[in-house]
Amino acid sequence: MMHIAWLKSGFVKVFWLALFLLPHPSYAEFDLSVGGLARTYPAGALAVASAGYSKKLYDEGAWKYGYARTALNAGSIGVVNRIGGEVQFAPISILLLSFGQDFTFRAFRPGFVDCTTFQCVGQTQRRFVRGHFVIAVKRVSFLVQWRYERVRSLGGLPEFFDEMTVVRGQSGGETMLSFLSALLVKTTDHLSLGLAGLSTRAIQSRNSSLMAGPAGTYKFDSGASLLVGFGVSRSPFIDPGFSGFSQVQFPLYPGPSILERAR
Question: Do 247 and 36 touch, CB atoms closer than 8 A?
């Protein structure tokens, strides 16, 4: 049974207020995207979807615009299921700030984790603040995404395993800080190549994970995008090893994010 204490939180009250006010047909635009994430070591994948309503606060063309957006997000791979929502604010398209909360329901027992010691199944609650900054000069682009979150695992064991970041945390409450950075050079109208890195640190438990290496993105004429990369992956649960990762996104109804609109 879903734990519902989060429904009384201040964030959720603000979220539902924004969700009901923003989508008025004369006021906001609907967006919908689907996609997926995958990595090879440790093996994992997730199908994702996001639906939202947004309103431009001003528009002076190109990247010179700002917007507000509310969204419902979901992800599933059968044994891991996630649902949540967020409120976004972009004072200018290249700079985003977002507040959100989601729940994950897991029936996942990976072979590289001792699930008698670490909480692998059950429910995980996350409250987060995240954002991004992106800048492009001629054919070179630089992206930084960050995420600060408070995570609770609702189970009987003192520590939990996080399937997304491959770190361990305290079940009663763990603070996690993640950074994704990418430096890319546009080689053709569709293809960009460069370097990317993803790191996550669990503050209270004092452990971290890291993946870094070459990466590339490909933009299709349809608006879909594909990110592929590889590098060395490290975490408390696995020995350092080679890993490939990929992310694909299909904006069925494109939203205001400059990451979706960039071509």
Answer: yes
**Residues whose CB is less than 8 angstroms from the CB of residue 25 and which lie 6 or more positions away in sequence, other chains included:** none
Strand, coil or helix: what is 260? helix
Domains and CATH numbers, the chain: 5-261 (2.40.160)
Per-residue pLDDT of the chain (263 residues; tens, 9 = 90+): 444 444 445 555 555 556 555 555 556 789 999 999 999 998 889 999 999 989 898 999 889 999 999 899 999 999 999 999 999 999 999 999 999 999 999 988 888 899 899 998 889 999 999 999 999 999 999 999 999 999 998 877 889 988 888 999 998 889 999 999 999 999 999 999 999 999 999 999 999 999 999 999 999 998 899 999 999 999 999 899 999 999 999 999 999 998 776 54
Residue identified by tokens 């635009």 is 29
For 49-87, letters b (16+ CB in 10 Å) and e give: bbbbbbbeeeeeeeeebbbbbbbbbbbebeebbbebbbb
Concatenated DSSP letters of 104-138: EEEE---TTS-TTTEE-EEEEEEEEEEEEEEEEET
